[in-house]
Design a protein that fits this description.
The chain is α/β, with parallel strands linked by helices. Helix 2 crosses helix 3.
Length: 240
């Protein structure tokens, strides 16, 4: 995992040739010693340290997390980031579901996304919060966007409320290649973390998304590789 923009998608370096037998043996050794659960936890901890505290090139406090093109378990990644943050920092941490294209809020978080009592317009941020620990809260889409789109608060107003409500926030947005949501929210927040799905995210699409965000002056804070089922040497992983 890298949090520096210029190392997210660099050219591949020349790799020393090896025989198929050598490669198979090395892969078997890696698989036998690799614990995917522990590796994922280590990567989330590293991401939190590099992005949120102390942060590079400056600390980020309210960030957007989105897939490049396929939204696979990004809500779960957001929850993991929020839980890690809540253990390591002082202050209120919010995990906000802003992706209207998925029902992952209930599927991943295991809580019902209640509707506002009046069923009309935007609900003040925090009114529908689900507190899951001393420092961690979940916000459903209705709290972020409102039920009636014609009466919903402007996005800059909602993000300002977000900054006032939470010291740290992780906002799950729709895939960046399919929606402008990540670009808009990333510009209003402190930046974007991209999630690449192993075996399915194409390099060209990821490069286009990164270039579009940078052209819009959105900070690309880092990248997460999700869905990897086998170990990759650390020297390769650093090139993501």
């Amino acid at each position: 995992m890298s949090t520096r923009v210029n190392t997210l998608f660099p050219p591949f370096a020349r790799i020393r040739q090896e025989t198929p037998a050598d490669a198979d043996s090395r892969l078997r050794d890696l698989r036998s010693a690799w614990d995917p659960g522990r590796f994922a936890e280590e990567q989330i901890c590293r991401l939190v340290r590099q992005v949120f505290w102390p942060g590079w090139p400056k600390p980020a406090r309210h960030v957007v997390v989105c897939a490049v093109d396929q939204d696979a378990n990004v809500a779960g990644i957001c929850l993991n980031i929020g839980q890690t943050l809540a253990r390591q920092v002082e202050g209120r941490v919010g995990v906000i579901e802003a992706n209207l294209q998925t029902s992952e809020f209930e599927d991943v978080f295991g809580v019902k996304s209640a509707s506002p009592d009046n069923g009309n317009g935007h609900v003040p941020l925090g009114d529908l919060s689900h507190q899951i620990s001393n420092r961690l809260w979940l916000e459903p889409p209705a709290s972020f966007w409102g039920e009636g789109t014609q009466d919903a608060a402007p996005q800059d107003v909602v993000v300002e409320q977000l900054r006032l409500q939470f010291d740290f926030a992780v906002v799950h947005a729709a895939p960046a290649a399919c929606s402008s949501q990540a670009l808009v929210l990333g510009h209003l927040c402190d930046g974007v973390i991209l999630v690449l799905e192993a075996h399915s995210t194409h390099r060209a699409v990821a490069q286009t998304v990164k270039d579009t965000l940078i052209a819009a002056k959105v900070r690309v804070l880092g990248a997460v590789l999700s869905g990897r089922t086998f170990p990759v040497p650390e020297t390769f992983y650093r090139r993501l």
